Amino acid sequence: MKVPLCIPFIEEAEKKAVIEVLASGWLAHGPYNKKFEKAFAEYVGVKHAITMNSCTSALQLAIEANEIKGEVILPSFTFVASANAIIKAGAIPVFADIDEKTFNIDPADIRKKITKNTNAIMCVHYAGQVCNMTEIMKIAEEYNMIVIEDSAETIGGLWQNKQAGAFGIGCFSFFPTKNLTTGEGGILTTNDDKLAERVRALVGHGITTTTYDRLEKELSWFRSATYAGYNFRMSNILAALGYYQLQKLDKMNENRRKIAERYNKGFSQIADITIPYQDVNAYHVYQMYVICVKDKNKRNNFVKILNEKGVGASVHFYPPVHLQYFYKDKYKCSLPITEDICSRCVTLPIYPQMTDAEIEYVIKIVKESI
Ligand SMILES: Cc1ncc(COP(=O)(O)O)c(C=O)c1O
Prior knowledge:
The protein is α/β, with parallel strands linked by helices and 370 residues long. The protein has two domains: 12-248, Type I PLP-dependent aspartate aminotransferase-like (Major domain) (Aspartate Aminotransferase, domain 2, 3-Layer(aba) Sandwich); 250-369, Aspartate Aminotransferase, domain 1 (Alpha-Beta Complex). 38% of the residues lie in helices and 15% in strands. The protein contains 13 helices and 13 strands. The strands form three sheets. The protein has a seven-stranded mixed sheet, sandwiched between helices. It has a three-stranded antiparallel sheet with strand order 7-6-11, with no helix packed on it. A three-stranded antiparallel sheet has the order 10-12-13. The radius of gyration is 21 Å and the shape is globular. The two termini are 18 Å apart. The model has no long low-confidence stretch (mean pLDDT 97). The structure holds pyridoxal-5'-phosphate.
């Protein structure tokens, strides 16, 4: 049997919507963007949601639209996009260590990394679990800092019943491995009217209206560029896909949680691995199911054996960002917990439509391979 790491869950509703858009002739930013943005903002519980081409663009614009040029504290245990976005926006990444149980940024280490130049915290909700937002919001308030939530991996996750992306500025990814997909895509969420207006303009060349917005207006050809912006837009085709994925997000997340529970039971007796920790305050949506092996020297071979036996296991993430070639000299630091977890973590297959046979197969192969 072969069980891939993940498979996007696309059904008839999404296929029909994409064909409907193709037939309509309106392929660029259009009516489905409006519909998806409204529905996503309501889902997260914020005033604004702005669709774009990726989460990386959302992260970059969250910083750029706030004119942050100082230091931004983030974890190094993340995909390199989080830090790249800070640099591309003209700010400075400062890495903090993670909590050894949740693998999310450690609020105590954030405090240690604060300097007079710190402007923002970029917390990353790792693998489907929201960070300790009670502590992070407290620090941000104390030091008057902006909070950017890199929620690429956590769509529909909660902290004390509040959605990821509703605490600070939310940045989500719709890459095919994520809980909701549009192939490539992202969205930014905020309650700040001014920020939303600015981000909307920056997404479309700095022009404050889109062609679709101007359609029925007088002088529809008049385009006013307020900023030197980008083309970070999401197409109407992908927005239609996203809109129908959102309708079944909760169901997909429930399935992920059920699979995680079955894995937890299946692995509970294995002394050589630890299962993912779930904070009592968090509703974990398991974008990834990440275990750790006890012995770091055995990790790579373990993943290799799983792959050979048809289990699409992987590693998220190694190396950590602060040890990546581009970062290791310029942003030198020591992060003992991050470095330890990076060398012992293993991601196992998880996707909402996983069958009983696939789940049982993964459990069996993990048990016999460890
Ligand atoms: C934590 C994190 N941030 C940012 C990104 C980048 O997302 P995108 O591919 O939509 O730009 C990812 C995607 O893998 C991610 O996992």
